[in-house]
């Protein structure tokens, strides 16, 4: 990196740490774009993170997560916290276009400088979204945002990745969704620190709450050694939000008291290191080195070389790159 | 690998290629368990794959994918094809326990030796599920299964990964799901080669079909240079299945005629090489080398070292491993 670029990174990092909203916005744009400038910024700010309470909020499509996050942000703002929100959107692997629903729905909060909201969109790279989201969390953390809410849309691997970023994971359900949805829920049941049954004024809410509580007793004990609470909410009417805010704060205190916080931080570190290493590999293959990789990929596609042999060749190629920088 | 282990791999590979169902089942169990034995088997069988038509079937929770796959398998079996089915289940990152719903629902087909059904479960490793699924597809392919259906539950990154494994991607919708679901659909619209609106006897089916067709005209043109068809089905009553079977076969023929098949094979190769390289990194960190990685991760967790620096250290460590084998 040239001296001028390095100075630009330093300047932005300083302004961001001093609380400049404009610097934070610019830094997040860098992070989304990726590349060496983003990496330098993330690397410089990394030592200044680790203070914020990172709260992951996830659940089935249609569960009203965005409304819930909005209500939670208002509850936290009422106590003068400076809040960060990262909305992770599913997006096309080809166009990179994000879905704007959440940005629009969040609008009424964007007039408050104490709330910083950012939508993240994957650029299709494997692990790219989680990696960029992790850096975005660090930037908000270094900028003094606390708590930081990370909301994902979708189910599956996303939930697992969030778990590794967040200290407290809130899983949102609603009464009366179909069998398949409940089946997927079973897969993410274990990553929840707090369960919310949203739209709890709907028919069947008591049954959903009861089923969740019953299922939770069947899971292996968690590192924080307790059963996650199951809290009813009607986010659209702001009902049940204050008990949820309290439960989230209490969970963080519990993690600190039991030492589980350190364990979770190590898990986060492990996930991030792997994601970054993977990103370096993907960049090597798709970027400037793409031309070198192509004949190898053609041989794999023609079944003349196994993907295992090609992967080892790639690793040996990238190592020099990574160390040379 | 010892001579005896290598002989065992050879023997299994031979029996599997000769069509032994027992050998295929055993090979898939190896693949799910992972490790050097699985890698040796996958590597040995890789040159013998590439013949089967791999069909990915994906869509929202509750869309009736499993019922659809079951009906499709029956339609294909009626024409004497030897079929493979891989059901990819969401699963817990902690227990590794799969959800058994699909296995149970598939039961009526398991008495037919011409249908081989396998559920895959992630072991929580990043990229582990896609990687194991890719190897499972290769094993079924080398065993002469054709077509091979890969069904995923869930939405998001899973769909993108399937796209890279399958030559034909079928996305299943149902009438009358909520806004959020449709928003997620927008993210996977572009990976569909064929759209199915299942449960098409429900109210609103015509509107859903019309909306899908309207959205498809807005997308960038695909490599096969056509608009994906939108087909109504009632899988539970086996209605619309034969037109779907024909559309799937026609798509494969189109890919061959346009040369898009070679492009997709190269994409598959790229994804697989990256996944395997990533897997080697993850194994190095979690496996025998885990003890060496731990102090580094502790430093990252304590914010004394950045995850970027740790990732570069990891890459430089693994390279030697990979080459030494």
Give a description of the structure.
Two copies of one chain form a homodimer. Chain A is an alpha/beta fold and 325 residues long. Helices cover 54% and strands 12% of the residues of chain A. In chain A, strand 5 (168-173), helix 8 and strand 6 form a beta-alpha-beta unit. The longest helix of chain A has 27 residues, at 260-286. The model of chain A is unreliable at 91-106 and 320-325 (pLDDT under 50). The interface between A and B is large, with 92 and 92 residues.
Return the structural class of chain A. Answer: alpha/beta
* Overall 3D shape of chain A: globular
Number of extended strands of chain A:
7
What is the arithmetic mean of pLDDT of chain A? Answer: 80
Distance between the termini of chain A: 9 Å
SSE string of chain A: HHHEHEHEHEHEHEHEHHHH
Major interchain interface with per-chain residue totals: A-B, 92 and 92 residues
- Percent range for β-strand residues of chain A: 5-15%
Helicity level of chain A? 40-55%
DSSP summary: helix tally of chain A: 13
Give a short account of the largest sheet of chain A. 7 strands, parallel
Strand order of the largest sheet of chain A: 3-2-4-1-5-6-7
Task: Fill in the keyword field for this structure.
13 helices, homodimer, disordered C terminus, alpha/beta, seven-stranded parallel sheet, 325 residues, 54% helix
Q: Topology of this structure?
A:
The structure is a homodimer of 325-residue chains.
Chain A: H1 3-17, H2 21-33, H3 36-45, E1 54-59, H4 65-77, E2 83-89, H5 101-105, E3 115-121, H6 128-142, E4 148-152, H7 157-165, E5 168-173, H8 179-188, E6 194-197, H9 205-216, E7 230-232, H10 241-258, H11 260-286, H12 290-301, H13 307-324
